């Protein structure tokens, strides 16, 4: 239930609900004038901060006011809302007064329903990571823009890779710069995506039609670049990693014998836990899927932190800064091992360290090395004790995977993929042909994990992409006991969920969270090669979910897509599919993904609520976050103009800048960001 003390533009103060009661009876036209005349300082301690002469949009449910002019904050809590005159009357000699720039509009801070925040910090480490992305996940400036002048460098400028030739050239250049005496003599690359690549030398096709690392020959191709320097290339989805022989030697995967190695029989090797025969066979070819991909990324990032113990703190700080600059006040670490959570605990250990951190963090516990739920739950409970009463960090849920990634061919489908390529056509690796993907965890396994999570007092987040994975996940939720009171499970991603399945979730303590920027970045690729037009047009049925009365949130799954809430809202409202200049649309796939006879586009207001009101409900925080009301935490985003006024031209969303945020009442102003919109040509008016 929401607090009921705030029910008009008359000021309401904690423990002083009767304050200015006479003013509340005044006709609206005289209300501000009378309140200013009658208001007197509160008897309780004056607020720490007041925000005046502002445009405040509360997003609160009626009869609470939709707007206000000023706000008081005490100990990080909103203690009053009203007119500027009313709030100024509450100030004391030590109260800080903030007047936002003219035109600024204040909304509840954006709440992150799902992402992997630390990866933005890790991948922004240009010393150790090579950018081979075709998406601007790090908000880099384009050539010629401020911050990217002179000779453009893809490490600091947004220069998308457009072909496999570009990727190889960047890896070759990185190999030449490796210092063999370094503590981290590796080449590590991020956000490679063969699905989005265009024609390369000797190939006029696109995506998987041309030579790429996901063709069963990654190890040989990367060995050709270097058979001495370990190379690891992480996919954009994070569900697949590609490695050469020296990297395989370091990873020491059970059943995989690399050059000079004898892995496979000792307890010292790392054992694949999902679809072990297939994962092992692919690993021999240099392709690491699912849990092996997470293991490899964690292994090499661990080496970086081991070489520089302060690296993790710097990366977490940088990632938090990026998230706050784009409006987040509450962010998520979406698959956190105990080691990951311990890094956050170290970064946020003291009051001084917390003072500079602009976000509250939600940890989603997950142990990629565990064949069951026990170690994940152990990590979650250990982290809870480690965090104690730290106000900036908590364990919000635990996680499991039903399948992998559609664009990487690791999603679990009911039917066939539209097109298939090696190694998924290799019957020696995948005996069941045609290949339809494989579950990471089957229905019985998911049911057992959800049951264990609920018994341990945690809600469950279930990653699901293919329609078979969605069916299994929803059946598991139905079979398991409900989550603890006030907590909600999450149906995560679910691009292929049906209307019938959405309706089956009505009235249940479940949030459906959609990765809508996927429409923009992979709509054309899914349509042209991976799923085909019929399965692509209606993907992410966001409007149907809202119409079914469900709690719907949107997310970016960063670093899969940029951590930009307004861009995600635009993607959900426009359903635009990028048409990259290097990736010709040869199949007449529509540039706007609309299912036959209807539309899954949502309004900007629905998008804003998905990132605020609905996201708070997802976390069970509706009493403390998601709207701007008295008694709620002062998490606020300040926008240069009002997105709700842009419904008639949603492309104007790209003009909205993030002025700054308040996180638990602490002000963090931005340096006029120039890269708020990640893709230079997306949504041009």
Automatic annotation (TrEMBL):
InterPro entries tied to this protein: Amidohydro_3 (IPR013108), Metal-dep_hydrolase_composite (IPR011059), Metal_Hydrolase (IPR032466)
One Pfam family this chain carries? Amidohydro_3
Source organism phylogeny: Bacteria, Pseudomonadati, Pseudomonadota, Gammaproteobacteria, Lysobacterales
Domain named Amidohydrolase: which ranges? 213-666
Query: Any signal peptide, and if so, which residues?
Result: 1-31
Among Gene3D superfamilies, the record links this protein to: 3.10.310.70, Metal-dependent hydrolases (3.20.20.140), Urease, subunit C, domain 1 (2.30.40.10)
Q: What is this protein called?
A: Amidohydrolase family protein
Query: Matching PROSITE patterns, A to Z?
Result: PROKAR_LIPOPROTEIN
């Amino acid at each position: 239930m929401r607090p009921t003390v705030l029910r008009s533009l008359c000021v309401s103060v904690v423990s002083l609900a009767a304050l200015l009661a006479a003013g509340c009876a005044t006709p609206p036209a005289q209300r501000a004038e009378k309140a200013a005349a009658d208001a007197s300082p509160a008897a309780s301690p004056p607020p720490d901060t007041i925000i005046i002469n502002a445009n405040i949009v509360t997003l609160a449910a009626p009869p609470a006011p939709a707007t206000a002019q000023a706000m008081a904050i005490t100990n990080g809590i909103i203690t009053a809302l009203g007119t500027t005159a009313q709030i100024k009357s509450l100030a004391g000699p030590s109260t800080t007064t903030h007047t936002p720039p003219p035109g600024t509009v204040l909304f509840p801070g954006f709440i992150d329903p799902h992402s992997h925040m630390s990866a933005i910090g890790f991948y922004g480490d240009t010393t150790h990571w090579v950018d081979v992305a075709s998406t601007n996940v790090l908000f880099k400036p384009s050539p010629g823009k401020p911050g990217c002048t002179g000779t453009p460098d893809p490490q600091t400028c947004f220069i998308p890779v457009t072909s496999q030739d570009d990727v190889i050239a960047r890896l070759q250049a990185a190999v030449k710069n490796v210092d063999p005496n370094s503590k981290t003599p590796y080449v590590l690359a991020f956000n490679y995506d063969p699905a989005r690549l265009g024609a390369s030398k000797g190939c006029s096709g696109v995506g998987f039609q041309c030579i790429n690392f996901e063709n069963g020959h990654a190890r040989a191709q990367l060995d050709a670049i270097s058979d001495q320097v370990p190379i690891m290339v992480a996919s954009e989805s994070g569900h697949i990693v590609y490695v050469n022989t020296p990297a395989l030697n370091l990873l020491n995967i059970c059943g995989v014998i690399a050059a000079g190695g004898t892995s496979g029989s000792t307890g010292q090797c790392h054992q694949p836990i999902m679809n072990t025969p297939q994962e092992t066979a692919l690993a021999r070819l240099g392709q690491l899927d699912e849990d092996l991909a997470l293991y490899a990324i964690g292994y090499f990032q661990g080496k970086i932190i081991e070489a520089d113990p302060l690296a993790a703190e710097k990366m977490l700080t940088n990632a938090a800064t990026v998230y706050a600059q784009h409006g987040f006040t509450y962010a998520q670490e979406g698959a956190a091992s105990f080691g990951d959570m311990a890094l956050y605990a170290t970064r946020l250990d003291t009051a001084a360290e917390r003072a500079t951190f602009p976000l509250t963090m939600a940890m989603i516990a997950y142990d990629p090395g565990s064949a069951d739920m026990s170690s994940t739950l152990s990590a979650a409970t250990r982290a809870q004790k480690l965090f104690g009463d730290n106000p900036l960090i908590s364990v919000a849920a635990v996680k499991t995977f039903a399948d992998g990634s559609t664009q990487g061919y690791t999603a679990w489908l009911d039917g066939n993929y539209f097109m298939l390529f090696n190694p998924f056509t290799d019957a020696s690796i995948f005996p069941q042909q045609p290949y339809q993907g494989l579950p990471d965890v089957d229905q019985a396994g998911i049911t057992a994990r959800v049951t264990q999570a609920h018994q341990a007092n945690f809600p469950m987040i279930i990653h699901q992409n293919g329609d078979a994975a969605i069916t299994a996940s929803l059946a598991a939720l139905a079979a398991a006991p409900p989550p603890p009171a006030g907590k909600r499970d999450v149906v995560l991603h679910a691009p292929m969920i049906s209307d019938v399945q959405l309706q089956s979730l009505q009235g249940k303590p479940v949030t459906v969270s959609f990765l809508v920027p996927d429409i923009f970045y992979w709509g054309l690729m899914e349509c042209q090669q991976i799923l085909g037009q019929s399965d692509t047009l209606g993907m992410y049925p966001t409007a149907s979910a809202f119409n079914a009365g469900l709690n719907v949130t949107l997310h970016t799954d960063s670093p899969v897509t940029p951590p930009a809430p307004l861009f995600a809202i635009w993607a959900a409202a426009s359903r635009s599919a990028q048409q990259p200049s290097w990736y010709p649309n040869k199949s007449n796939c529509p540039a706007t993904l609309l299912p036959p006879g209807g539309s899954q586009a949502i309004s900007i207001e629905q998008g804003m609520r998905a990132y605020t009101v609905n996201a708070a409900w997802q976390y069970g925080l509706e009493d403390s976050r998601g709207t701007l009301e008295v008694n709620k935490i002062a998490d606020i985003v300040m926008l240069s103009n009002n997105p709700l006024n842009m419904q008639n031209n949603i492309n104007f969303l790209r003009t909205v800048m993030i002025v700054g945020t308040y996180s638990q009442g602490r002000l963090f102003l931005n340096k006029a960001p120039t890269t708020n919109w990640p893709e230079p040509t997306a949504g041009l008016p």
